[in-house]
Amino acid sequence: MRQAREASQCQERSPLQLEKLDCLLGRPITRNANGVENVGPRHIQCLPDAGRQELIDIWTEAEDIVAWPWQILIVIASLIPKGPTAFRPTGLLSTTMKWCSAVRAGWAKEWVTKAAGTWDTAIAGSSAFRQALLLS
């Protein structure tokens, strides 16, 4: 964990902006399911400016210390039937974490691209398992 914190402090990150969050919230919301904390995108939309700024401040602090509050790390997992003999695991995540990821999408995609090794041949939008089967 110490190495992750040190690496994070060396990385330059642009400050999280309330305008970026508001831009994302201004898009039509096609999925309005609540997250594990029973908060959905419409709840975030209804927050006053000060409330949305507080959310940005929490995200900034989480990035600074490289740790999310434990309440946000909870995932409810379930198995969805996939055909007669298989199941697909899925998880209900925190809405606040998903929105923070959306605000940082460009930065995260850049980091993933830099961190990918030559062995990583997964295709964006495709199952890594399916890609592994195609290569074997």
Structure write-up:
This protein has a two-stranded antiparallel sheet with strand order 1-2. It is globular and about 50 Å long. It has helices at residues 2-10, 18-25, 41-46, 49-65, 95-103, 105-115, 128-135; strands at residues 76-82, 86-92. The protein has 136 residues and is mainly alpha-helical. 50% of the residues lie in helices and 10% in strands.
- What is the straight-line distance between the termini? 35 Å
Return residue spans where pLDDT drops below 50 for at least 5 consecutive residues: none
Give the strand content: 5-15%
Radius of gyration: 18 Å
The counted number of beta strands is 2
Shape: globular
**Coarse structural class:** mainly alpha
Order of helices and strands: HHHHEEHHH
| Number of distinct helices | 7
Q: Which sheet architecture does the biggest sheet show?
A: 2 strands, antiparallel
Across the major sheet, the strand order is 1-2
The percent range for helix content is: 40-55%
What is the arithmetic mean of pLDDT? 75
Give the gist of this structure:
This protein is mostly helical and 136 residues long.
Helix and strand arrangement:
Blueprint: H1 2-10, H2 18-25, H3 41-46, H4 49-65, E1 76-82, E2 86-92, H5 95-103, H6 105-115, H7 128-135
Antiparallel strand pairs: 1-2
Summary keywords:
136 residues; mainly alpha; two-stranded antiparallel sheet; 7 helices; 2 strands; globular
